[in-house]
Specification:
About 50% of the residues lie in helices and about 15% in strands. The protein is α/β, with parallel strands linked by helices. The protein folds into two domains: about 1-255, Alpha/Beta hydrolase fold, catalytic domain (Rossmann fold, 3-Layer(aba) Sandwich), CATH 3.40.50.1820; about 260-390, Tetratricopeptide repeat domain (Serine Threonine Protein Phosphatase 5, Tetratricopeptide repeat), CATH 1.25.40. An eight-stranded mixed sheet has the order 1-2-4-3-5-6-7-8, with helices on both faces. Pfam families: Esterase.
């Protein structure tokens, strides 16, 4: 039932996609011809803005572009991945020649090499010059082109950060040494590969062998995901592979979820403000985009701090929240809680009182704050009376 609902939802999202796609032509000196591109920009894309977007290059754009665009719409709707610039290369009858590779090396030669250079030397600069692209690039290919995109891994400086190789027709050196190649990277690389139980037998065998190689690789810079889908064939696995690959590649980008809170935040060795800051610095470093820490995520981390009885984290999260948005009462509210819990009643009262002039936060009740001020006023008075009696 859930799968049916998701399929219907994706279909509804995909209805306006065609209206959002633009078609461009790019002249290529490498190919000595003009190639057509399908381009879909993120919702609310503003060329004058400083916001940058990951670039997804879809090989086999004739039939893969729309499934990729639909999945990006779906995942960005739930903020599971950033808005991205999607570009499909229309290959048509040239596909076989575009993906032409040496049988021994498995790497592009002749017409395949010219197409390889077209993408690297003409298409990417063309897109970077005209659109607000970030440094994070994703290559998506199926079958012949699933093998072809691996050729960029064998360059000294890989053109892409992430590779989605769907049921690739692996051959030659690429087939035999893909795992070894992935051992040598000293910068972040994401690699996703998929097959299915009803895949073409010769492709499935090569993919399973390649997976055995890559699974043995111990490289802290490599993030590898593999799927072997059940009850799918060479073509029906495509939609599942696209969904899974983006879900995994952009996992860090997702909002804080229960699993991360339990497995990473709760057990974190330092103060939890540092966990949040480091997490979002990592998103910017990796994807080349700035994502702001949300109030909802701050609230989740505060709950974990309370669970850990971690007063130091509570104070530092309060300071972080205040720095991120001085007009919101959120940071001051947590600082007031911290002061109250360490017994600094006067300070806590003043902090609670100062929240009255700040902007509301949905989960914090003003009546509760006023009741806290009244409660602390009574406590403060009682303490003064006790001090007078002691004197």
């Amino acid at each position: 039932m859930r799968k049916t609902i998701l399929i219907v939802f994706i279909f509804l999202l995909s209805i306006p996609i065609c209206a959002q796609i633009s078609y461009k032509e790019i002249k290529s000196s490498r190919l000595n011809t003009t190639r057509q591109l399908k381009i879909k920009l993120p919702k609310n894309y503003d060329p004058s803005s400083e916001v940058r977007y990951p670039l997804i290059i879809v090989f086999d754009g004739d039939y893969l572009f729309e499934p990729v665009a639909g999945q990006v719409d779906f995942q960005t709707y739930f903020d599971d991945m950033p808005g991205s610039i999607i570009v499909g290369i229309v290959q048509g009858n040239e596909r076989r020649w575009d993906g032409y590779c040496d049988q021994v090396t498995g790497l592009p030669k002749e017409s395949g090499l010219r197409f390889h250079e077209f993408v690297a030397d003409e298409l990417i600069p063309y897109l970077d010059d005209r659109y607000s692209t970030s440094k994070f690039r994703v290559a998506v290919g199926h079958d012949l082109m699933g093998n072809f995109i691996n050729s960029y891994l064998f360059k000294k400086d890989p053109l892409f950060k992430a590779y989605v190789s769907i049921s690739p027709d692996l051959s030659g050196t690429v087939r035999d040494y893909l795992g070894q190649r992935l051992e040598f990277f000293k910068d972040d690389i994401f690699y996703y590969m998929a097959t299915a139980d009803n895949d073409l037998p010769y492709i499935r065998e090569a993919v399973l062998n390649a997976n055995n190689q890559i699974a043995q690789v111990k490289n802290q810079y490599l993030t590898y995901y593999f799927d072997d889908f059940k009850n799918d064939n060479h073509y029906t696995l495509v939609s599942s592979a696209i969904a899974r690959s983006f879900d995994k590649i952009f996992e860090l980008y997702k909002p804080l979820r229960e699993k991360e809170l339990e497995e990473k935040v709760l057990t974190y060795g330092g103060t939890l403000d540092k966990y949040l800051v480091d997490r979002y610095d990592r998103i910017e470093e990796l994807f080349g985009i700035t994502k702001l820490i949300t109030e909802e995520e701050i609230q989740k981390v505060v709950l974990v701090a309370n669970q850990r009885n971690d007063l130091e984290s509570l104070e530092k999260i309060g300071k972080l929240a205040k720095k991120l948005d001085p007009t919101s009462l959120l940071g001051t509210y947590y600082l007031a809680q911290h002061a109250e819990q360490i017994g600094k009643i006067k300070k806590a009262k003043k902090l609670y009182e100062s929240t009255v002039d700040l902007n509301d936060v949905a989960h914090i009740d003003r009546k509760f704050i006023l009741s806290k001020i009244e409660e602390l006023s009574v406590t403060e008075l009682d303490e003064e009376i006790e001090e007078d009696e002691d004197n």
